[in-house]
Amino acid sequence: AMEGGPSARIREGDCAVLKRDEVFKAVSVLRRRKIIFEKQWFYLDNAIGHIYGTTFEVTSGGNLQPKQEVEETTTETKEAGTDNRNIVDDGKSQKLTHDDIKALKDKGIKGQEIVQQLIENSTTFRDKTEFAQDKYIKKKKKKYEAVITIVKPSTRILSTMYYAREPGKINHLRYDTLAQMLTLGNIHAGNKLIVMETCSGLVLGAVMERMGGYGSIIQMYPGGGPVRAATSCFGFPKAFFDNLHEFPLSKVQSLLSGTFNTETLPADPEENALVEEESNGLTEEKQTSIQEAEEEPTPEAAMEINPTEEQDTMDVNAEDVEFKENKEKENKENVREKQIKQWERRKKLLEAAALLREKNADGLIVASKFHPTPLLLSLLEFVAPSRPFVVYCQYKEPLLDCYTKLRERGGVINLKLSETWLRNYQVLPDRSHPKLTMSGGGGYLLSGITVVLDKGKSDSSNSEALKMEEPSSKRCKLQDLPC
Amino acid sequence: MSFVEYGDTIKDGDTAIVFLGHESMFPVKVQHGTVTQTKYGVIRHSTDLIGKKYGSKVTCSKGGWVFILHPTPELWTMNLPHRTQILYSTDISIITMMLELKPGSIVCESGTGSGSLSHALIRTVAPTGHLYTVEFHQQRAEKAREEFREHGVEHLVTVTNQDVCKNGFGVSNIADAVFLDIPSPWEAIGHAKSALKAAGGRMCSFSPCIEQVQRTCLALEEYGFTEINTLEILLRVYNVRTISLQIPDLGKAAEGNSSTGFDSSNPSHQGSPCANLQQGTVQFKSGVPLREVVGHTGYLTFATKS
């Protein structure tokens, strides 16, 4: 079967995700780079060339070794108790001491064998019920068998990872809520989509995955530049960024009023770099994806991307002139490079502005730390009629306000305020039940569909719309005045 | 128009959604010379629909009006003719994400049922992916084929009329993901495994009963699937209401010590003091849960073939 293709193998420079049980961590696959994950350190060198999904054992010296499968539990006749009436917790059931266990570990004994020894040295193990034995083994395995699976990044994995590790960076957007957004927003290939997020670029990445490089995305950003730390964890091909545009929020008003110009850009690229750096604690190492290289080119990256520049630099080297001259030329190059960059940024900004001005976007996705009402009231102007929009907020109250203001504005129907609950289950023979803990909150969504805005007689159509959508809401509206 | 590509104007042959109001809408096949009856009067397709922009307000014969919406899998799910129990968008969304579907994915599904999930799957894997869907009920299979044709997505889907538990999906080693919504999914796990690519893929089974989940999980383990995980997702919808609560009379006004005067600690959601339109009441906005909500649709069991 050739379906795996080259992409199914772990390659140097890839963005990959480490997985141990339910814990994930995104990393760049680099040689001779120490990784610390779940209190263990190791190198990824040996993983290169293996298929994604391979499970590795950490051996001495931090090397990874593919785990040999099928170590079916021994065929010896199992002995087990039926209840715990005679099991007394005297703290002495384990005959191995802490020092013994440490000695085993230091000798480099495999985790699997340590677990076996722990079982053999437990005086109560045989008296435990079969289920309790099972649980005991699982617990010990988790502690002593250091296995790590390397998986390919996806929205499923990265959104689960972010929610568990750094919920603050994604405004506590739970993965099932993100899933709702993608569906409610009808995100698919060919969309022309507006995204406004402050979720480290996770929502953007999720949208890009669903669009598969088809269509265009205009990312609206606050401050000096869009944050895309999570986006870069996806390891998207470079082509996915060809139709990714960005536009500063601070320019939206001028674009809507027709006074927009590019003379005053919001900030220089250095500031972008800072924003990106600050928000990127997840992978510890500096992100090295193509995307970031594009966003804030380092000199090397810029050379790789821009063939003319590479040519220029090679010419400089080839000339092999005096050091001073060389340096001067370098400076000139830098100035020119900066100008080119500035010019390219301006060109991209104008492109994004032109796309927005068409006011025919196929949808709007908002998931930010800001109050959603002003964002919606402005950004919906850029969306075509009969298109879905979805707003995420960690809190319900701002969405209540947003709902009311959108009703007053008109031009939207089928408004829905919702939340999802997620419950995980343990499913084992005779031991099935919901998991003991579930997430308390994954945020709220306000969704709806745009319609042609009847500007002339907006007042009367509003009250009609209200009546139409909710017959009982007439009274509410009367009471609805200054609140 | 198609379900995988937006169009601006309504054309002859389109499937459009007539939106009458909150939760009240229905699909209509746009045809020259046809009329559609609504409670607001008649809609004449030739003059009222064709050539108009999607999202337009259309005035019906009795003076009432409706909006005409572009179809999407989500609107279709809310309006499709039921031939079976269907999956709704809340479950569909988590299925799509957990199966890691995207443009280009190859998906196998059984049963096709009323095609609610099928439309969402097709939307997500288009334009380069494909859906192989298996339905053992001949009439349903044919109806699904017809709908896919009408919706402009027939090139993205293959409907097979056979029993997935006996005969599998009719394809092997090509799928990135498999979805099962059948009464005895454990009988189809082997077929699911062989439909998935040799390099691996994701799988999901939907079952209303925990006993079904139990057997499915055992079968998944037996066939070497990993990352077996069962979950349940529930939707809570809130009505936005302005609530007004009476202030109890504790005799304070008699003491001249002013007020119903609620300070900033009032429960207003806007952070500003609420209007006391009537003496002795306080108002606030609230998201009120519906009186009755769906408490269970089904358990979703996910697993990985690696």
Automatic annotation (TrEMBL), chain A:
InterPro entries: SAM-dependent_MTases_sf (IPR029063), TRM6 (IPR017423). Residues 268-279 have a biased composition (Acidic residues). GO terms for molecular function: methyltransferase activity. Keywords: Coiled coil, Methyltransferase, Nucleus, Transferase, tRNA processing. Transmembrane segments: none annotated. Residues 318-346 form a coiled coil. The keyword Ribonucleoprotein does not apply. One of its GO terms (cellular component) is nucleus. It comes from the Eukaryota. One of its GO terms (biological process) is tRNA methylation. Residues 72-92, 264-300, 460-483 are annotated as: Disordered. It is found in: Nucleus. The keyword RNA-binding does not apply. Residues 75-92 have a biased composition (Basic and acidic residues). Belongs to the TRM6/GCD10 family. This is tRNA (adenine(58)-N(1))-methyltransferase non-catalytic subunit TRM6. It comes from Chaetorhynchus papuensis.
UniProtKB/TrEMBL annotation, chain B:
Its main location: nucleus. Keywords: Acetylation, Methyltransferase, Nucleus, S-adenosyl-L-methionine, Transferase, tRNA processing. It is found in: Nucleus. GO terms for biological process: tRNA methylation. Residues 64-305 form the tRNA (adenine(58)-N(1))-methyltransferase catalytic subunit TRM61 C-terminal domain. GO terms for molecular function: tRNA (adenine(58)-N1)-methyltransferase activity. GO terms for cellular component: nucleus; tRNA (m1A) methyltransferase complex. It holds the Pfam family GCD14. Its EC number is 2.1.1.220. Coiled coil: none annotated. S-adenosyl-L-methionine binds at residues 114-117, 135, 163, 181. InterPro entries: SAM-dependent_MTases_sf, TRM61_C, tRNA_MeTrfase_Gcd14. It catalyses: an adenosine in mRNA + S-adenosyl-L-methionine = an N(1)-methyladenosine in mRNA + S-adenosyl-L-homocysteine + H(+). It comes from the Eukaryota. Catalytic subunit of tRNA (adenine-N(1)-)-methyltransferase, which catalyzes the formation of N(1)-methyladenine at position 58 (m1A58) in initiator methionyl-tRNA. Catalytic subunit of mRNA N(1)-methyltransferase complex, which mediates methylation of adenosine residues at the N(1) position of a small subset of mRNAs: N(1) methylation takes place in tRNA T-loop-like structures of mRNAs and is only present at low stoichiometries. Heterotetramer; composed of two copies of TRMT6 and two copies of TRMT61A. This is tRNA (adenine(58)-N(1))-methyltransferase catalytic subunit TRMT61A. It comes from Chaetorhynchus papuensis (pygmy drongo). The lineage of its organism: Eukaryota, Metazoa, Chordata, Craniata, Vertebrata. The gene is Trmt61a.
